[in-house]
Design a protein that fits this description.
This protein has helices at 2-7, 12-16, 20-42, 45-62, 72-90, 121-125, 127-138, 142-153, 158-165, 169-192. By secondary structure, it is an all-alpha fold. The radius of gyration is 19 Å and the shape is globular. Residues 99-119 and 197-207 have low confidence and may be disordered.
C-alpha cells in the first residue's frame, strides 16, 4: 500500500513532539484508506466523515501515549474501527466484538452457490452488482463486517486484522469465513434471480 510506504518515512519522534507538519503528513498518508474503511463500515458518507474526523482527532490527542508496540497503521485502524463500532452502537446496529458470534438454531451452510466462472463479466462488475454487494456488506453483523472490510477490502493480512481487533488469528479466520459465506449466499440469491443468465450459471456447489 502506498500509505504504508509513506508511513515508513514518518518520524514518530516528531509526531509525539507535536510537529503539526508531520501530523499533516500522517493524515495525508492515511486519510483515503481510513475513509474507505469508514464508508464500508457505516454505509453513509456523512457518518464516514465523522469517523474519519474523530479518528485523527483522537490520534492527535493520544500520540504521546503511543508506545510503538504496533505499527502506526495498525494503531490508526484500531482507533477507526472502534469509532465506527461505537457510532453503530449509538445507532443501535451493533453486536459487540466481545460477544460471541451469532448462531442460529438449525442454520446450515447454503448448498447451491452460483458458479461465478459462467457469469458474463459485465454482470459481476456492473454498477448495479457493486451496489448490491455494498448493501450485502451492510447487511452483515458488524462483528463480521469489520473483519471482512479490513481483510478483503482494505487488504490487511490476517495477522494485522488480529492486531487491530485484538482477536486471535483463528477468530479472524472464522469470522471472515462466515462473512464470505453470507455474502456468497446473498450474491447467489441475487444472480440466481436475474433473467437471461446462462442456465449453467445457476448451478454449482460450495467446495
Amino acid at each position: 500500500m502506498n500509505s504504508r510506504r509513506e508511513a515508513q518515512q514518518l518520524s514518530l519522534e516528531a509526531l509525539q513532539s507535536g510537529d503539526r507538519a508531520e501530523f499533516a503528513r500522517l493524515v495525508e498518508a492515511y486519510n483515503a484508506v481510513i475513509y474507505r474503511l469508514a464508508v464500508k463500515m457505516m454505509g453513509d458518507p456523512q457518518d464516514a466523515e465523522d469517523v474519519l474526523q474523530e479518528t485523527f482527532l483522537k490520534a492527535y490527542r493520544h500520540l504521546k501515549d503511543f508506545g510503538g508496540r504496533s505499527s502506526i497503521s495498525t494503531w490508526l485502524y484500531r482507533i477507526a474501527t472502534n469509532e465506527a463500532l461505537m457510532l453503530l452502537r449509538r445507532k443501535r446496529d451493533i453486536v459487540s466484538l466481545d460477544e460471541s458470534l451469532e448462531t442460529e438454531e438449525g442454520e446450515q451452510e447454503p448448498l447451491q452457490i452460483v458458479d461465478w466462472c459462467c457469469l458474463p463479466e459485465e454482470e459481476l462488475v456492473s454498477a448495479e452488482a457493486k451496489k448490491h454487494l455494498d448493501q450485502a456488506i451492510q447487511g452483515l453483523p458488524p462483528n463480521l463486517r469489520v473483519v471482512f472490510v479490513l481483510r478483503d477490502i482494505q487488504g490487511l493480512s490476517t495477522q494485522e486484522v488480529s492486531e487491530v481487533l485484538n482477536l486471535s488469528e483463528t477468530a479472524v479466520k472464522t469470522r471472515l469465513s462466515r462473512a464470505r459465506l453470507r455474502l456468497r449466499q446473498d450474491l447467489t440469491d441475487y444472480f440466481g434471480g436475474r433473467p437471461n443468465l446462462p442456465a449453467d450459471s445457476k448451478k454449482g456447489k460450495l467446495s
